[in-house]
Each structure stands twice: as C-alpha cells, then as structure tokens.
Amino acid sequence: MGTGIAEVALLAGYSVYLFDSNAIAADKAARTVRENLQRHVEKKRLTSDRANRAIDALRVVKELSLFSDVALVIEAISEDLESKQQLFAAIEKIVSHQTILATNTSSLSITAIGAGVTKPQRVVGMHFFNPAQRMDLVEVVSGLATDPAVAESVCTIAKAWGKTPVRVQSRPGFIVNRVARPFYGEALRLLNERAADPATIDGVMRETGGFRMGPCELMDLIGLDINLAVTRSVFRAFSYDTRYTPSFIQEEMVRAGFLGRKTGRGFYEYRENANRPSPHTEPPAEGPRRIMPVECDALVQPLVRRSMAARTGSFNLWRSSHLGLLMETDNATVWLTDGRTATERAQETGLDNIVLVDLALDYELTKRIAVAKADQCSEAAYREVVGLFQAAGLAVSRVDDVAGMIVMRTVACIINEAADAVNQGVCTREALDLAMEKGVNYPLGPFAWADRIGFKIVHEALANLSFHYGEDRYRISPLIRRMLWRKESHGPAAERATSGE
Q: Is 181-263's fold the same as 291-398's?
C-alpha cells in the first residue's frame, strides 16, 4: 500500500520521501515505483518527461529525522495499534507543528491512534484501497480530536491526487469494511445452509445482482485470512454483536491454509490447468401452455413482460390479493422472494406449487435468474417455470429453499448495515453510496438500491429473515423504519388526503 500511495503522490507532482524500518524493503519499494512508471511510459499512458519528473521527486530516506520539512506524513505499516502510536509519537518530535499525521489504517480507531501523540488534532485517517494507483476512493476519517480543518485539507489533497474522498467519523470498519460485511457473511451462511455451491452463488451475484465479482471469488482474491481478520476486528469492535459473527466455514478454511489465490486454493483451485466450475444452470425444460400475469410492482414488471413476450397469444394483467405474486402458469405460481421460504409461503397460502424468483439488479437486462421451489411443489410444475424463463432468454439457477435466496438477502442486509451507519452518524447517505460504488465497485450504492427496490420490500425481507432465523443478526435499522414510514406518508393515500379526496 505504501508503494502505491507513493506512486499516486508522485504522479500528482508531489515530492515523496519513502521510509521503512527495513532499508531493503524501502529500496525495493522505490524500485517498484520506478518500474511501474517506466511501464506506463512503454504502454503510452505516461510521457517520458512526466515519468522522469516523478522519479526525480522520489527519495528513499534512511532516518526519520529527515522528515523534518514534510507537510504530510502517511503511515502504512502493519495493523497494530501500539506500533502506529509509537511511530507517530516518534515522528511528531521531528516534524513541524503544522504537519498532518495521516494513517492508512483500514480498521483501527483514529481516536486511539491520536491518543498516543501530544497533538491528536492533527491525526487523521487517509484510507486508500488496494491497489491505490487504480482505486478512486479515499476514506478521510476523523477521530474525536481531529481538527475539521485537517480533515478538509486531506480531502483537498486527495482530490489533487485524482482521488474521490469521503468524510467519515471513526467507527469500526469506517464505511466500506463495515457495510461490506454482509456481502461476505451472507454468502458464507448460504454455503453453511447448502443453498448452492460457491460458483452458483458467485454467478448469481454477478449475472443477476450486477456485482463485478461474487463474494467467494472476491474472498479468494483478498485472501481468506485477511477477510477473516477484518471480520474479527469489526466483531470485537462492536462488542461481539452477532451481526458480525465470523463464519466457521471461513475459519476452517484458514486453519487448513486454503487462503485463496495466494496459496493456490480457496473456494476455487488456482493450480495450473485447474478447471473453474460454472454456475449451476438448469437443463432445457418445456414451458407452460398458458400464463396469467399479475399486476405487480414496477420492480419486477420487466420480468413479467419478458415472460409474456416468450408466449403467443394476448394477455390481460389481473390483480391478486397475494402480495409478491407475479404470474400463474398451468400448474404453478411464481413469486418474488420476500425473505420467507417457498415452503412457508406454500403452507400459508395453501398453494403447493410455489416457485420463488430472486432479486435482480435489472430484470429487463439480466441473463440469469435464481429460483427456488417449495418442498410441496411438484417437479413437473417447477419444470414449467424453468421452461418459461428459459424461453424468455434466461439461464436458470436452482438454489435450495433458503430464506431470502441469494441476491435479495444479501442486498437487504447491505442496505440495513448502511442505514445503521448513517443513523449512527458515521457519514451521510450520499458519502456512503459513493464509498461503496468507488471503494468496492458495487453496481449501486446501498441507498440507491433501496430506492430502486423500495423500502417496503427491504423492510419486509429483513422482518421475515429475522422471524425465520430468530436472531438479532437481522434486526431492522431504525432508519429503514423511518424511511419506510416517510415514503408511506408521501404515497398516493397521503396525496388523496391532502387534496381532500
């Protein structure tokens, strides 16, 4: 990270001093920066003159005492509080009173780091994302004592370096590492419940949910040990809140040394010529002779339209008293998942042949859909639904009948975590959406997702998950309840009341 940050600063026209307690490591870092800059020149992404100016502005120093004239220090050592405190305590004796002391910590308290120096008001978090050269986001994190002017100065610097800064209060995980926990945690729970294999979970999250990478392949890329360490850190920092409980599956994989790409094996194998498994896709099936589409929520109307377009004949939308019902076929009913299992909904409605569909980012464009059938549902009725979606141009992935399926439960939990972060004053909702889009490349920020889905659907999914599991893990954020009632109070009924109807 230190190497990447140095390269970013150099390309922005800053002079950079590079120090490491291991002089060999510092020399290696400087060599890596020079090689990267030369590679940019060879690929015509950088002019020779600019690269040479950057190289000339880089200096490896062997003593901290040579930092006496710097305006900004960025620390990127190991994630150990005592080590960071000791380093800053040594540096503040050398630099001027105006020098900003920034830490690249991804999870430690800025307040605690600042408590180790005599002027904590100049200590601020400047959390880059790996690789720093390519990732846009910088979380600018204020501890309790951080001077707002210092945080604002760091935001200005980040912008000058071509980055997108977001202001954050020092809370466990800041924005990204906190709000991203459900992305991994729900996937691990799905694996534990044998809902689907890693390739299917990843495929559905990518192709249906619109995420750039699935959770299992992303954990393999990050390193399961690193991902687990962040989860444990957040779990401890939140006083062992069950929402952040580490996964036994992940802990076992770390014990086995299955850490992902770096060890050649994680959820997938990375040895030479290893076969990468594909998402489970249902074989071709014959669709129904008739469908009866339901007048449903705008979110899922494109899926109903696609299904109708795949059939011949005319259709009239009909209204149903069953919320979430999308269509009827010859023998089955098709519903949007709402956090309940298909089996539970079959028992409650008295309709045995129920098939659920998972949430999609865009039902008009998606090429894959995940489905789950009730235990009471006949195989023939289920195959009708599979055939219907296949005729609409969709690859169909069957998952076991778990509450909330894959995309819906994951996105609902991400939105819930985001709402809690905003409700607790960590950042604004605009900053949070920007952070998740820029920091981890989510297709939408959590609040943009909530606006697309509707807070009512999110609330319902979380309430049903909470009831199903009987755990505090799925407790609903007060902000979601507030947003739900705010939206409800400005809906059509309120408008009619206001106009005197």
A: no
Instruction: For residue 269, indicate whether it is catalytic.
Output: no
Q: What DSSP string describes 12-25?
A: TT--EEE--SSHHH
Options 40, 127, 280, 459, the catalytic residue: 127
Quick: pLDDT tens for 287-311. 998 888 887 788 998 999 899 887 6
Q: Is the dihedral of CA 100, 101, 107, 112 positive or negative?
A: negative
Active site residue 106: yes
Lowest mean pLDDT among 140-149, 299-308, 339-348: 299-308
Candidates 36, 104, 106, 477; catalytic one? 106
Find the angle CA(126)-CA(130)-CA(131) to the nearest 5 degrees.
Answer: 115
Catalytic residue among 139, 217, 282, 460: 139
What is residue 102's three-state secondary structure? Answer: strand
Choose the catalytic residue: 177, 353, 464, 477: 177
Question: How far is CA 71 from each of CA 92, 164, 180, rounded to the nearest angstrom?
Answer: 12, 21, 33
Give catalytic status of residue 107 as yes or no: no
Domain boundaries, the chain: 2-177, 181-263, 291-398
Give the pLDDT score at 293: 85
Q: Is 227 a catalytic residue?
A: no
| CA distances, 435 to each of 168, 230, 236, 255, 391 (Å) | 10, 18, 23, 32, 39
* Helix and strand element counts for the chain (H, E): 21, 13
- CATH no., domain 2-177: 3.40.50.720
Note the CATH architecture for domain 291-398. 2-Layer Sandwich (3.30)
Domain 181-263 in CATH 1.10.1040.50: yes
Question: Do 477 and 423 contact (CB within 8 A), yes or no?
Answer: yes
